[in-house]
Amino acid sequence: MKILSAADIYKWEQATLISQNISSVELMERAAEALFQAIQQYVGERQASFVILCGFGNNGGDGLALGRMLHMAGHIVRIHLLEHTSYSAENEINQQRLHEMDISISSLSPESILEFPAKSILIDALFGYGLARPLDDRWKPLLYQINTASNPVLSIDIPSGLFADKPTPIEAPIIQAHLTYTFACAKLSLLFPKYASFTSNFQILDIGLEKNIENTLSTPYEYLQKEDVQLLIRPLQKFSHKGTFGHAYMVGGRYGSIGAAILASKAALKTGCGLITAYIPACGYTILQGAFPEAQVETDPLDTHISMFPKQITDYDAIGMGMGMGTHPDTEIALRQLFERLKLMPSIPHLLFDADAINILAKNPDWHVLIPPNSILTPHPKELERLIGLWTDDFEKIAKVRDWCRRYQQIVVIKGANTAIVLPNEMVHFNSTGNPGMATGGSGDVLSGIITSLLAQGHTPADAALLGVYLHGLAGDIAATTIHERSITATDIIAHLSSAWQHLQNPYL
Ligand SMILES: NC(=O)C1=CN([C@@H]2O[C@H](COP(=O)(O)OP(=O)(O)OC[C@H]3O[C@@H](n4cnc5c(N)ncnc54)[C@H](OP(=O)(O)O)[C@@H]3O)[C@@H](O)[C@H]2O)[C@@H](O)CC1
Ligand SMILES: Nc1ncnc2c1ncn2[C@@H]1O[C@H](COP(=O)(O)OP(=O)(O)O)[C@@H](O)[C@H]1O
Ligand SMILES: [K+]
């Protein structure tokens, strides 16, 4: 699914009105109906109480129309409307409809002192994507009351005060929504860690905007969903053998963190590659063989850390390196020697660089040109910062990574909530699966194993990164259905990879 700018959503909306021959009030009614259905699901069967805070534009119009529908469904509804010199036409029509039904509207100003009845749900319909400038200090008291109330806050389209597609100064007043119902497509700001306290969760509501018009709008940003990754799956063939599914080589571990290599290797095998060989320091031999009999193990001449890469790297379909590897100077030299050897090879396996492999690369900027094109780098935010330097906001972070990927023709997977996969053509895909329970030691190692396995199975690097990130998050989400998020471990993510494959391949789930 595309992630569009506010300007493009407006174009999409306007073109839909023409192509479907409907009025903007009818489209607003459709949006309010979608909101109403979603909120009915949110409250379940019970009668609920709502306080709807409406602005003077179309976001406020949505709030007014929603208020009417909730009232008609028997809920207790209090509607407050910002006083203003003029309202949007759709907003006025919805005010009129409420008057006709004798539903009262209280006036609201930035100075209003409000009392929210206990257990009522606050609906934030103050500003949507029409926010033209950050809200000024005058709005602080009103938004403060909403943000500090103990009531749940549901935002319509976007938390009021937040720009959809450009940086918002976080010192400006912004609604802290518990859940945002956003129309038609995801918005960039809903995906960025900097705004996490305003946007904790969101749900996309389909309001029937015209698909062929969406296809004409171009954007470098995509929201990666099930239907996108299903297209990347390759069917298993009856006469497959272990060679068909590729041989993955996992290089990592050092004294004290051999587990990282075990987790990555297990995850690789559970993702479906035919063979896995782990290359680890000698101290890990018995541990890895004991923990994981399916793996083949090769050891470095040194006991505690990796000091050289094996000669026969062309025997493998994909190599994932760096998990728990450490940054010992010997390991650093070994990586440099590997790059020198790769330069001389006519064809090389696909490569993935994680964790300490990235830390070593960050320490040596002159090696960046040596990383083979189409390699995958999987940094968490701190590793990314070491690699590309600091950024002032998430928009700049994404711009810097896009620039890196174009310049070096590499794929960077920025890990975290809504992991972003940035491709050499500068497309950015934000992942829709995963949960905070996955922020646990070793879960990044599991991701490296999954992506390396998909590379070994013959997926292109871009497909392996997209499918791998989605699958990893999905396994975490399925784990969270039976294990509390706080208790999820990296091993649990591996254990649920099989269900994730089943889920992904089942059209009815
Ligand atoms: N996507 C879709 O298909 C659909 C979208 N729909 C809905 O429409 C929403 C967009 O509506 P919208 O364009 O009327 O803008 P909205 O956010 O209500 O506010 C605009 C008003 O705010 C004002 N204003 C701006 N900044 C300000 C500031 N800092 N401080 C004070 N005032 C400020 C601005 O005034 P001005 O900038 O002219 O001063 C203008 O009067 C969208 O989010 C969604 O909810 C659905 O109904 C149908 C389908
Ligand atoms: N809040 C979150 N929501 C979803 N996924 C998360 C969240 N936090 C972390 N993750 C995922 O967990 C993994 C953590 O990786 P990483 O930080 O490298 O951990 P480790 O080094 O312990 O293996 C990444 O794939 C990341 O996307
Ligand atoms: K809003």
Automatic annotation (TrEMBL):
YjeF N-terminal domain residues: 9-215
The Swiss-Prot or TrEMBL record lists the needed cofactor(s) as:
Mg(2+); K(+)
Q: How is the cofactor bound?
A: Binds 1 potassium ion per subunit.
List ligand-binding residues for K(+): N59, D124, S160
Q: Where does AMP bind?
A: K415, G416, A417, N418, T419, G444
Quick one: which residues bind (6S)-NADPHX?
58-62, 128-134, 157, 260, 324, 380, 445
> Which CDD domains does this chain map to?
YXKO-related
Organism's domain of life? Bacteria
Q: Which InterPro entries match?
A: Carbohydrate_kinase_pred_CS (IPR017953), CARKD (IPR000631), Nnr (IPR030677), Ribokinase-like (IPR029056), YjeF_N_dom (IPR004443), YjeF_N_dom_sf (IPR036652)
Q: Which reaction is catalysed here?
A: (6R)-NADHX = (6S)-NADHX; (6S)-NADPHX + ADP = AMP + phosphate + NADPH + H(+); (6S)-NADHX + ADP = AMP + phosphate + NADH + H(+); (6R)-NADPHX = (6S)-NADPHX
- This protein's record includes keyword NADP: yes
Residue ranges annotated for the YjeF C-terminal domain, each copy included: 225-504
Q: Does the keyword NADP apply?
A: yes
- Name one matching Pfam family: YjeF_N
The record's keywords, sorted A to Z, are: ATP-binding, Isomerase, Lyase, Metal-binding, Multifunctional enzyme, NAD, NADP, Nucleotide-binding, Potassium
Purpose: Catalyzes the epimerization of the S- and R-forms of NAD(P)HX, a damaged form of NAD(P)H that is a result of enzymatic or heat-dependent hydration. This is a prerequisite for the S-specific NAD(P)H-hydrate dehydratase to allow the repair of both epimers of NAD(P)HX.
Family, according to the entry, reads as follows: In the N-terminal section; belongs to the NnrE/AIBP family. Belongs to the NnrD/CARKD family.
Q: How does it assemble?
A: Homotetramer.
Report what the protein is called: Bifunctional NAD(P)H-hydrate repair enzyme
Which organism is this entry from? Answer: Sphingobacterium micropteri
